[in-house]
């Protein structure tokens, strides 16, 4: 039998917190490739931020040797995937390298929004799907109910369901046996011209770019000269190998295998996710289809706190882009903050993760502007513009109409929280489309909402009002007419461009009020009053004042004539007026960040 008959490539997909990473941990322990003293929970989650938040952000690959019950040893290429809606592009990239997937469902929570979304992604890639009911050890586990959901809601065969408790290690061997018995081995001819798909890459400071790839046809070994089909760049392969927590070099990799390649690729921009690798001398006929381009939905500008860190930010974004293909950025500039980048993100969690990774992995101090979405603007002369930056907002007198993106939000909650969720969505200008019961206690509510109302703090609020039981998934449906205004923040009469926001007319006062109050708390007091104002056009709609320090100039005047005290106070007032004319207000970094934070209840 050929080598590829003993290879299985598969993913584990599920909703957030249904136990993907824990199941991966147990399978790694079963394969015995990590010594007990080196083992720790969430071993495939290599970033600190993943462990702290308890979520997976990056898909990670590992090759597990497994001695099956039939007496043969198999190579199980397991790709762990994220569950959060913002990182579904990671899931689709991982699935492109697989023949099958295990769909995990929590025995107490049942089928949730991302369970369904990830199932559809797997079906699009035409994968074999095996359902697994996880967390059967929980006191609140209801296996029969979840089994019914998997059959009725997902349309999967209940006979193939595996029962497991990743935490206790129950059923882990059944999962590995199912991978051997029910998932198809990879296809492909090792003698054909090389055709391999890049599904990820990362930067190693000592070796340059490390490319993660799956071979569909042919084989590759150290010493081969390979070529990227998108830009025709050619490189000599230094090392190929597989992932077993650390990189394990191999002499060659054949069709059907998943591994890595180091080829002295110095320039980060040469590697693009979804590109096809082939041999320079004997190229394949056509490139593999690659991946759908991801479309950013949330935009924000990133600036370094110190202008001397700008060059470091340029390098950091280039390296991060290599590991996160969905990040989009272009140069930007601000009068208040200097040079920076306008970035596009897939959601607010994605924005937070990118900010934290830049600060931790590249040791940068950053300021982010208020997140915005893309608006379509039609001008009086018939020209159309797409605006995602408040600085580029045209003169309101020249605008005929504006349209904003709307989403269809699917919210699955226990029915006790129906009223609270409905109130939250109505406050955000939501339209209730329909709701239906999945079971006698859990229901799905469908709303159409403006995306701009969701990107701020909607997800946090939803989690808090449903005590963590609400699950939320959305897709962009269309653009609709809106009453858009530009909200400016003035500090002592000077407009601070980095604090400007595009908001719906109804929300302008509320946003201005919140921003002014937060800035008042953050801006340090001076010897003169500081006026913080929110303005729409020429009209001031909100104001807060940072009161001045007051030196007690009359302390030495005990007794005596009152006119002497008045004279000293008048003198102080004139001094303050003069100071205000020349006084510049320094806005601390924390003030910019405070405007972004979710509203206080």
Commentary on this structure:
This protein has 14 helices and 31 strands. The protein has an 8-stranded antiparallel beta sheet with strand order 11-10-16-7-8-15-12-13, with helices on one face. Strands 2-3-1-4-5-6 form a 6-stranded mixed beta sheet, sandwiched between helices. The radius of gyration is 29 Å and the shape is globular. Helix 12 (508-522) packs antiparallel against helix 14. Helices cover 25% and strands 33% of the residues. The model has no long low-confidence stretch (mean pLDDT 79). It starts with 6 loop residues before the first strand and ends in a 5-residue tail after the last helix. A hairpin with a 4-residue loop joins strand 24 (431-437) and strand 25 (442-450). The chain has 5 domains: 3-182, P-loop containing nucleotide triphosphate hydrolases (Rossmann fold, 3-Layer(aba) Sandwich), CATH 3.40.50.300; 195-279, Translation factors (Elongation Factor Tu (Ef-tu), domain 3, Beta Barrel), CATH 2.40.30.10; 298-368, Elongation Factor G (Translational Gtpase), domain 3 (Alpha-Beta Plaits); 375-482, Alpha-Beta Plaits, CATH 3.30.70.240; 485-596, 2-Layer Sandwich (Alpha-Beta Plaits), CATH 3.30.70.2570. With 601 residues, it is of the alpha+beta class.
